[in-house]
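Can't paste images in this forum, so I'm doing it all in text. The chain is below; anyone willing to post the predicted structure tokens underneath?
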Amino acid sequence: MSQKLQRQRHQAQTSINIGYLLLSFPLGICYFILIVMGIIVTALNLFLIGIPLLILFMSAIWKIAAFERQLVIRWLHVSIAPMAAPFPAQASRIQRGLLHLRRTVTWKSILYLFLKFPFGILAFYVTLVFLILCLALCLISAILGLLVAPFVYFYMAVASNSTLDSKAAGKYIKNVLTGAGMAFFPLIAINFLASLWSQFAQAMLGMNENAMRLAEATALAERERLKAERAEQSRRELIMNVSHDLRTPVASIRGHLEALLLSSNEQTLSPAMLYDYLQIAHRETMRLGVLVEDLLSLARNDSHELRLQIDTIDAGAVIEEVYQIMMPLARRERKISLIREIPPQLPAISADRQRLIQVVLNLVRNAITYTPDGGIVAISLQQTETQYITLSVADTGIGISQEEQQHIFERFYRTDASRTRSSGGFGLGLAIVQDFIQAMGGTISVESTPGVGSTFHLQLKIAPAIASTRQALV
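Text version of the structure:
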């Protein structure tokens, strides 16, 4: 069956080769006329129009060569290397034009299209002659077969004692009708001619091995350059964010402490004002602690020095601890109701307890920050899959647009610069949350509707029946 399929494919490819060789004649004429006319028009108008006309002519030739390359690839089924590497992103049109003129493939493609004309003439006539020869051999073989077939039939019947071997007779008659295969020699020559031209196209319409290596090295250098530029841009953004966001709480703490020092000498500060000042200083100190912790986590993660202590822990206990920490703050400062929902008898999970607390604190803190006064923030647990538990942090806040949801886990990304300035963040919180969750073998996702609220879902792995503590490098 495979031999039959292979024979059918070979016959189909022979038909395609015949079509390509016959088509080469009109294509060669068109290419020749376009090249000659282009050279004449460019030469006559070079002093009038100049370089733009030359660039337009070379661009047209390049597109025609690209069309011919695709034609050879699809019809003759040959692999051809790319014609050229992409232009540098920062190159101007003039630079691209000069670079195009310096490419070897540019001039090889012109030579290829020019030689297509004599090859087209040769291929057209050779193909016609071979096809006529093939038909003639088949016709002669058919006539001889009709004359000889009765004698062959009689001879085989006598030789086999009046028992005719139909398969042997059919095979003999088939060989006679095809001239014992001689009629297919012209087709072999046609396939050979198409193969020679495909190899020529492979050499003329694609980069050579040295050019390919140079293009790969150039592309690698360009990627490294862009990577370095992004890293430098991130560094500048980090410095700007650190200088701005650390300055605000430090100035607030300093101002209130100076007021406390002055009032202590004058003894004019009431207990209520003293409490307010201390509360503000405490809040700004907590804010500084969060910023420093984010920076420290980022530095450790980038240097691969952040270690996670993966152990079997109770996710409900983690939520309860976060709830006890954040509930007074949410109620006192924002009049927000913080609630938790922990179903009984949930299986334990595999995670780093301290990092998971940091993750949930970050999400709850963000939810409180972006929820208007009187809103609700809920922390819940549920087992949605056999191997995972879902920890969700939902709020009735301002929400996140669909476009911003695609970027909120990127470093230094801020959904609203003025709003996050007041909250004092670098745009690192959610990026660090994602790094921690992925390092613990989980995933994070978000669902949000602007004006309605947001819900962050953490998929945490359920611990195996017998779990052992292990160290994991992020």
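Residues 209-266 form the longest helix (58 residues). The radius of gyration is 40 Å.
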